[in-house]
Amino acid sequence: MAEDAEKKAPAAQKRPKAPKPQVVGAKVSASAPKRTAGSAKGAAGSAGAKVKYRVNAAKAVSAQDREADKQSMGQVRKSLVFLGGVTVAYLAYLIFSGQMDVFLASLSQVDSSWMLRGVFCYVVYYIIGVSAYVLSVITDPRSPVGVRDLMSVEAAGVFFMNLTPNGMGAAPAQIYRLTRAGLSVGGAGALHSTRFIMYEAGEAIFAAIMLIFRLDYFLNSFGDFIIIGILLFVFKILECAVLFGICAYPKFFSSIGNWVLRFANKHGWVKDYDHWYQVVNNQINEFSDGFKSAAKNKGDLVGVLVLTLLQLGCLYALPWFVLNAFGKEADLITCLASGSMLELLTSAIPLPGGTGGAEGGFALLFGGMFGAQASAGFVLWRAIEYFLPTLCAAPLLGLRSTSGESINHRFKRYGARLRRLFSRGSGGKGSGGIKITFK
Question: Where are the transmembrane segments (predicted)?
């Protein structure tokens, strides 16, 4: 009976084994079905195949991915308790320092329209992040990942980056959602690693550009203290260099990692040896292979990098909106440069949300701009840069695409519609329309 049932099962439910990192179940949605006479029945069958394709995509999620996602949620719960304590401590400081009256008076003077613009700026930040993921998969006609899947992935990056120490929970949470969408573990890791490297490179490039334009401002305003910011920038450059080095020479870095791992294990410093052994010997190679595969499409990488720079610009500009909300005159480039330095300081603190680095960095870099309203300015900046995005990202974590059609096919279909539309507008002459080509 089991054998007969298996023979009768639809082809969409049988997935070929993938010996190399590749899209799981890709053949089901590879192309639109050919239409023939009486294609209504075929269309119904095609729609059924797409639904079953999505069922199988969910089965691609490994137990390890699920466990990593659960661990990330466990870290989130601990972080919420920690941040609650930090909030109480901050309120206590305002009360006992006698600044509560100034704080409340400052908040009453806020121009809400500027705050709404700041919120919209962060929404643009999120949209650009999703677009960068879309650009990374749009050339693959077999990719099962849809736009809503990528919205969930980007939301997971925001949520877990904000609520886990040093953002450690972001990577496993994003890879989990990519495998849930239908990518193999190797394919999900490759896509995530490429996006991660481009984001890190974007941070370094943006900071370098801002230092070129505003180095004199930093030296005149903060003196020798700005050396700390410059050191953080140098560290970011070295981090990017190591990432690119791992991609280019994985065997060399694996040998170094194995030596360090053996040395640490010999002295009893490693708690989970098997996990770190797998990271050094397997994940480094997957990380390298994924980036090398993506690097073949240099145009896409450049496009992702440009989008990342625009995305970071939206994030770093948020203090400028808060300053204008208080009626302060502020230079946008100076705010971008200071915002870039502030994010470097925040990310250097291994606590949820960079607690400590965010407060100290804001007081240092923006305290003079806000004056007596610095405390209120910090709270509003933290609200639109941290707390509100975290709350809004939570409902988006469960988004999933259900059509089964790849983004590549969807854009080709829309391109064909545009070609027909412009052809009709030019009097039916194909040569007079706009030619849109998708490679």
Answer: 80-96, 116-138, 196-213, 225-249, 301-322, 361-381
